[in-house]
């Protein structure tokens, strides 16, 4: 009985001190009318979902991340994989494998997270178009406390993508598969925020990043677009939806 009481006291101390072990549940939902193959890159050793898997229209999958997890999610489209998990994707390919061990080839829409740990427990999250765009994407906090706002890019940017930024779908003539960032398209310092343009003061929005921002006001449009694009929440789970406006 004494040992049981000690365990209860210890559990109470952990809870009240804010260091109780907890986890964050990510639900990935595909509301697109086509299959997507989510890619997942973890910033530490806790790989989620094996790095990638197919997600049919209307399907969802839940993944659990430990405290302190950081990483990104993206959609791969137009994929073909054989029985060994080798193949390729029209957009977001990650080295020709189903289970990603590296990042996706841009342009891709990214959902980025740093899950809180310690006493503050604050999560940071965003949807980024810094590497370009391929699929509509949204992040909806579920529960939690704090700001906890919806983040996403729910517009069809491919439909308004300038000609010089377009990636065409090789299997569907005339269909835009993705939209490059200006950095990817031109590789120049003023678009990539490098060299003489490597600070917030010297790297300003361009007419290309303004196009992304106009289409998706809550998404990162270029490297220093922090003020209107980074969101926080504490103790939340998250619903990540591909093509959220079609659900």
Notable traits:
single chain, 247 residues, alpha+beta, Thaumatin, five-stranded mixed β-sheet, five-stranded antiparallel β-sheet, 4 helices, 14 strands, 13% helix, 28% strand, globular, disordered N terminus, Thaumatin_CS, Osmotin/thaumatin-like_sf
The backbone outline, from C-alpha atoms, is globular
Q: Which runs of at least 5 residues are low in confidence (pLDDT < 50)?
A: 1-21
Question: Could you give the order of strands across the largest sheet?
Answer: 3-1-14-9-10
CATH 2nd-level architecture of the domain at 24-158 and 207-242: Sandwich
Figure out the total of helices.
Answer: 4
Our Rg estimate from Cα atoms comes to 20 Å
CATH superfamily of the domain at 24-158 and 207-242: Thaumatin
CATH overall fold name of the domain at 24-158 and 207-242? Thaumatin
Mean pLDDT: 89
Distance from first to last alpha carbon: 53 Å
Helix percentage range: 10-25%
- Percent of residues in beta strands: 25-35%
At the first level of CATH, the class of the domain at 24-158 and 207-242 is Mainly Beta
Taking the sheet with the most strands, its summary is: 5 strands, mixed
Structural class: alpha+beta
């Amino acid at each position: 009985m004494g040992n049981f009481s000690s365990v209860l006291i210890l559990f109470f101390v952990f809870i009240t001190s804010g260091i109780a072990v907890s986890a964050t549940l990510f639900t990935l939902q595909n509301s697109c009318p086509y299959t997507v193959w989510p890619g997942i890159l973890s910033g530490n050793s806790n790989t989620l979902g094996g790095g990638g898997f197919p997600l049919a229209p209307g399907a969802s999958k839940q993944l659990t991340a430990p405290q302190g997890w950081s990483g990104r999610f993206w959609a791969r489209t137009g994929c073909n994989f054989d029985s060994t998990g080798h193949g390729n994707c029209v957009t977001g390919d990650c080295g020709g494998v189903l289970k990603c061990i590296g990042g996706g080839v841009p342009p891709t829409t990214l959902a980025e997270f740093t899950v809180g740990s310690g006493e503050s427990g604050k999560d940071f999250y965003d949807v980024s178009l810094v590497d370009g765009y391929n699929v509509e994407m949204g992040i909806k906090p579920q529960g939690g406390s704090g700001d906890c706002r919806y983040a996403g890019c729910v517009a069809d940017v491919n439909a308004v993508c300038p000609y010089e930024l377009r990636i065409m779908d090789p299997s569907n003539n005339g269909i835009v598969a993705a939209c490059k960032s200006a950095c990817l398209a031109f590789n120049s310092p003023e678009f990539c925020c490098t060299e003489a343009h490597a600070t917030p003061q010297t790297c300003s929005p361009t007419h290309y990043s303004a196009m992304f921002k106009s289409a998706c006001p809550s998404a990162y449009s270029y490297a220093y677009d922090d003020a209107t694009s980074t969101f926080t929440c504490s103790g939340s789970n998250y619903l990540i939806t591909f093509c959220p406006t079609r659900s």
